[in-house]
Automatic annotation (TrEMBL):
The lineage of its organism: Bacteria, Pseudomonadati, Pseudomonadota, Alphaproteobacteria, Hyphomicrobiales. CDD domains: PBP1_ABC_unchar_transporter. InterPro entries: ABC_transpt-TYRBP-like, Peripla_BP_I. This is ABC transporter substrate-binding protein. The keyword Signal applies. Residues 1-24 form the signal peptide. Keywords: Signal. Pfam families: ABC_sub_bind. It comes from Oceaniradius stylonematis. It comes from the Bacteria.
Amino acid sequence: MFRKKAASFAAAALISAACSVASATEMTQVAITYIIDHPAIDAARMGIVDELEAHGFKEGETLELRVQSAQGSMPTQLQIAKEFAGLEPDLLVAISTPSAQALQSTAGDIPLLFAAVTDPVGAKLVESIEAPGGNITGTTDKQPFGPTLALIKTLVPDAKRIGVIYNAGEANSVSQVAALKVELEAHGLEIEESTASQTAMVADAALSLAGRADAILIPTDSTIVAAVESVVNVGERAKIPVFASDTDSVERGALAALGFDYYKLGRLTGEMAVRVLNGESPAAIPVGALDTQDLYLNTSAAAAMGVTLPDDILEQATKVIQ
């Protein structure tokens, strides 16, 4: 459990010596939580911790770190948020929109950073991207759907209907689907929606798209990404190409993704954490984002889903998984 940094002593003569001992043993206290375990979130967390260590905040030496997953349960996430706020750390960090919303409701005046939140304004976490306000800022994984839809049309030229699976209870996902609908219309494509509020429901949600969708696009939805193998299984059996919005899902069987490297996003979040720990106000730090997208392709998945990957597309890939 985190310890308070301040102490009171009855004898004024002992204050100076006691504070000297305390300063020699004090450690910066950071608490990190996230809604569910999956590779993209894990990569973001690793990036944050590595960046902190690169700036001298090393766990066990100068950093007291507490990390806890909500295992996909929002009531558990709210409980973790209350527990973490009660510990009064130097910094709270939330990875994912539900986690950030939970911590924001309990943080009080404790500085708070979020990572991998697609629409922080829509989720009512910040006042604006440029001037977050309050005691919170962080990084967003929002990315344009246009390039991904262009990729889908290149690899699946006959596709007319794009299936999307998402958790309708996540503000992050609802925002993405609204933006996707606009982009689909601009590309002459239609949407087929399927929802899942828990990872155990993802397989059935994916199966419901068989016969309705010509391709499936998975948004940056923690619930769905945590069970991406269930979607891949349906895609292979029904010959429906599965595209992701995070590159880690391609390593887990999705055909392709034009998305962010979540480890790099974590490092960016870590840079912001260092600034806050060094005294900057989160309110004055604009929400950060990566400015490049990586193309990941999976040749085995392409073959299993009935897609041929052209040589010129393979040459453009940041990484090709066999």
